[in-house]
Amino acid sequence: MLTFINSEKLTKENVAEKLSGQDGIIICPGFGQRGIEGKIIAAHYTRTHDIPTFGICLGMQMMVIEFARNVLGYEDANSREMDEKTEHNVIDIMEEQKNITNMGGTMRLGAYECVLKQKSRVVDIYKQEHIQERHRHRYEFNNEYQKEYERAGMACVGKNPESDLVEIVEIPGLKWYIGTQFHPEYQSTVLNPHPLFVNFVKTAIENKTKA
What whole-number distance in Å separates Cα of residue 152 and Cα of residue 63? Predict the structure, then answer.
């Protein structure tokens, strides 16, 4: 059964009540400020309670921000989209993207190559190292923080080979905690579902069975 949880109404006080019974959580994409703190609260709860979690685009970025705030210790960590003055801009528009104008803004649109890290969960899911996925976003993972994330347990397991931009993060120590900067739903159909969705649902079912 699917349950819609409005992140605008999610707080530290009610998150356990809202999420504790879920077998898996998708932190959805979006734009702007709406509901982002709720998404961060959700990411923290699912990470610390090992609930299978799939973050897509903005959802992935909120997973990255949550990790910076609560694991790396940067309380003000944020995206430049949300807070232009943050000293820890773990999500930002990278320099090489600032000069790209497409449809009136600096947005990465369309299909881009991605190379997956060997021995990662995602390479096991895709069963290949080179993939191509579709994007629709402006802001990116800030590579200046990559080594800190890697040391603390969040692995950057998918990168664009030309720009070196991070496309996928995962926490190997958890059941299923993966965020993608791209939109896998753009290449997923009823007859040919995306491998990430298939594996996520399979893990959520296993999580339910074990519970």
Answer: 14
Strands 130-137 and 108-116: antiparallel
Q: Which amino acid is at 19?
A: L
User: Is the pTM of the predicted complex or chain greater than 0.85?
Assistant: yes
pLDDT digits (tens, 9 = 90+) for 58-98: 999 999 999 999 999 999 999 988 898 999 999 998 665 55
Tell me the three state secondary structure of residue 140: strand
- Using CA atoms, how far residue 189 sits from 54, 93, 177, 194, 197, in Å, is 18, 31, 23, 7, 11
Q: List, in sequence order, every residue forming a beta bridge with 180; answer none if it has no partner.
A: 56, 168
- Which entry of 113, 129, 148, 185 is annotated as an active-site residue? 185
Catalytic residue, chosen from 37, 113, 148, 183, is: 183
The amino acid at residue 114 is C
Query: Helix 58-70 crosses helix 36-48 at what angle (to 10 degrees)?
Result: 60
Residue 125 has pLDDT above 60, yes or no: yes
Candidates 28, 57, 114, 156; catalytic one:
57
Residues 6+ apart with CB under 8 A from 156: 117, 141, 146, 149, 150, 166, 168, 169
DSSP letter string, 72-85: S--TT-EETTT-TT
- The DSSP bridge partners found for residue 177 are 53
